[in-house]
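Form 7-S
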Amino acid sequence: KVVTITAITLTGAAAGNYTAPAPESITGVTVDISKAVPAYTAPTLTALAGQTLADLVFPTGSGFSWNTGKNPLDTPVGNAGSNSFIATYTPTDTGNYLVVENISVGVAVTAKTLAITVSLNLSHELILTGIPPDGITLSGDETATISATGYTKVKWYVDGDEAAGEALGDGGDSITLKATDYDARRHQVLFRGVQDGSAYSKEISFTVSE
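Output:
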C-alpha cells in the first residue's frame, strides 16, 4: 500500500536521518536523505611520450586521483595523441556527497623532443706522415711507414684488425706496412688517437700489387 503524506517541510540540507514534523494524524515520520552525486569537471592532462601516470599530477584541490586498480601508476601514457585513463573523484564533503569512480580523464601526449649537442674541434687537422700524394702501392718486398705525432692512446687497424707487434714503431706512433704481409688487393688502415682530450681518427687505403 502506498501512503502519501503532504504538508511536511524539511529544513535539513545535509545527508542523514531527520524526524519530519508530522501532521496531527501521524505520530512521527523518519526521512532518510541519501548522499548526492557531486558535480565535477574532469581535467585534461598533458604528458610526454615515455612518461607514466606516476609522472602526471592532477591540479591541487581538484579531488581527482588515478584509479590504480584500473590503471596502475606505472602505466605508460602511450604514443603521441589523445589517450584516456580511469580516475576517481573524491569531493571535499564526503559526508554529503558520493565518491565517483570510473571517470575517464583525457591525456594529451606529445612526442619527446631530443636535444643533441655536437661538439666539434675544428682547430686541429689530423696529419699522418709517410703517405705519398698519389697513395701507397706496395709490391715485392716494399714497405711503407705511416706516422702520427703528438697523440696518446694511439691504435692502428688494418682491414679491421688491430695492429700489434713488429708492425708498430716509435712506441706505437707509427705502423709499417709490408707488401709480403698482405695479399694483392686494396687494403684499409685506420688510425685512432687522442689529443687535448679530443679523439681523432683517419682512414687511409693502400694497395698491394703482384
